[in-house]
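Hello Y.,

Per our agreement to keep a running log of every chain we model this quarter, I'm adding this entry. I've kept the format consistent with earlier entries: sequence first, then predicted structure.
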Amino acid sequence: MNIVFTGPATDNSGKLILRTNLTQACIQKGNLVVQPAIGPDTDLLVASRSDTVKAKRAAALGIAVFSYPEFITRFLKGVEIPTGGLASKFTDKVDADMLVPNFVEWDQLEVIDHL
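Predicted structure for the entry above:
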């Protein structure tokens, strides 16, 4: 599966994950290829925000867009991913107000279903 990351990565607890650590986890899993940009063979975009140009372009192309916690839960289950570290100001800076909602927890899905 070919994937592209955009924005800072966080785990289910909101802890920062460096892009290099996330890429290593994908390599360790073995069936995930990290691409630098969306292309015709991209299967999945993992985003911290859904309102970016990259996320909107992916959705328009029919590429699935997942939050980082959702991606980690579905595709990297059982892989240990180190958190923390010295963040890159270009790929790892977190703005909590701009994150994609985490719909991994089922009780949140139930609330959405009732809306």
